[in-house]
Amino acid sequence: MEPVQRQRPRGRPQGSKNKPKPPVFLTVEPPMSPYILQVPSGNDVVASINRFCRERSIGLCLLSGSGSVADVTLRQPPPAPPGSTITFHGKFDLLSVSAAFLPPPVSSSFTVSLAGPQGQIIGGFVSGPLISAGPVYVVAASLNNPSYYRLPAEVKQENSSASAEAEEGKGQSPPVSGGGGESCHIEGSDVVWTPAAGILTKPSL
Q: How is this protein annotated for GO cellular component (predicted)?
């Protein structure tokens, strides 16, 4: 008698299951992370944020701010001598904040828009302490691994056209409006000021 060879059944045996595979986790670092910073009353807002960035070795881009500050010193625009500043005394409400705290070689600048007690609107580059007159809240975003690019110089043709446009614009003075007091806006300047450029006092009736 010849032995009968049984064929192996094809397919998977009944009741068999796949071995469980370990889960795969992908960690993706977001390009920006939100931050909400609170500066206590009586502290320099600019110095506090700068110290926060240095201690954590991060760069921050300020998006908005709210709160009150006192005795603001801003950089004066031309035709004032370079380095001239103007100080506004009193309490002001923060309307907007624009700044970027980045590691060297990028220099940081702090720009604010403020509302005075009598409705005056001032703003410009901060050139001194910005002392909080109450809790100041700043919404910022961290810049993770920013890329730096040095842009090429302009072409000579573009320079010649720009100089021609500058010649055409010579002699045009910025708009100035009179009335109850001087109020002027210099295009591209650092400061927009209203009548009381020194100590803001309540007008006598």
A: nucleus
Host H or E run for residue 156:
helix 156-168
Over the stretch 175-202, which tens digit does the pLDDT of each residue have? 333 333 333 333 334 444 444 444 444 4
What domain count does the chain have?
A: 1
Cα–Cα distance, 173 to 178 (Å, whole number): 15
- Write the CA distances from 178 to 66, 138, 181, 183, 185, integer angstroms: 31, 36, 6, 7, 12
Q: Does residue 173 form part of some domain? A: no
Q: Which domain range does residue 49 map to?
A: 29-143
Highest mean pLDDT pick, 60-69, 94-103, 139-148 = 60-69
> For the domain that residue 71 is a member of, what is the CATH number?
3.30.1330.80
Written as one letter, the residue type at 132 is S
Token pair belonging to 41: 């009353």
170 lies in some domain: no
Buried/exposed 168-204: b ≥16 CB within 10 Å, e otherwise: eeeeeeeeeeeeeeeeeebeebbbbbbebeeebeeee
Residue 103 CB burial class (10 angstroms; 0-12, 13-18, ≥19): middle
pTM over 0.70: no
